[in-house]
Amino acid sequence: MKTITFYLDFISPYAWLAFHSLPKALQGISHRVVHKPVLFGAMLKHHGQLGPAEIPAKRDWTYRQVLWLAHQQGCELKLPAAHPFNPLGLLRLSLACDAGGEPNRYICEQVFRHVWCGGEDAADADRLAVLTDRLQPGRDPAGAAVKQDLQANTQQAIERGLFGVPSFVVDDKVFWGQDALPMLRAYLLGDPWFAGPDWHAVSMTSVGVRRQTS
Questions:
Q1: CATH architecture of structural domain 2-191
Q2: H-run or E-run covering 169
Q3: Where are the domains of the chain?
Q4: pLDDT in tens, 101-159
Q5: What digits encode the pLDDT tens for the residues 96-111?
Q6: Whether the Cβ atoms of residue 93 and residue 3 lie closer than 8 Å to each other
Q7: What's 147's DSSP letter?
């Protein structure tokens, strides 16, 4: 049985779409999924990037695309009242629901639905209080241990070379994005391509020019 580490941030609509599609993508494959909530914004900062919703033209396209993808795959999705938003409260709540800081699928789904189903304010304090009461976390979401778990998950993701969410890690392989699920499935089914030269050969391609960023 393979273990799939799923790095996610509830702020990402692509993470919600991937979460929704994952059971179908892995159907018939013996596996275990470990959910690792991370702070996507910290990953972006580390790599010196802007998020899709921080570039005006890309922001509009991102929302159109995720609405289309949700329609295509039969996934409920309604944009929240404001996006992006501060996801810290939701990330910490999910981590607080498990003693080891690994929230199960039910917990993650409830938090994702809080954000992406209903079109309400995902960061509203009253709504967060209601969600917290419903999930009954065993640890204090504002406690030092939970905050440390989130920091550790995010640092682990960065050290593994991750730059975005959703990301899936199996063995030493990283699969990024909702559209990487067919590739992930192929790897788990033993597609011989992954044992060939192409996976590692890409890092041998030289950089022809570097764009000035300042």
A1: 3-Layer(aba) Sandwich (3.40)
A2: strand 167-170
A3: 2-191
A4: 999 999 999 999 999 999 999 999 999 999 999 999 999 999 999 999 999 999 999 99
A5: 999 999 999 999 999 9
A6: no
A7: H
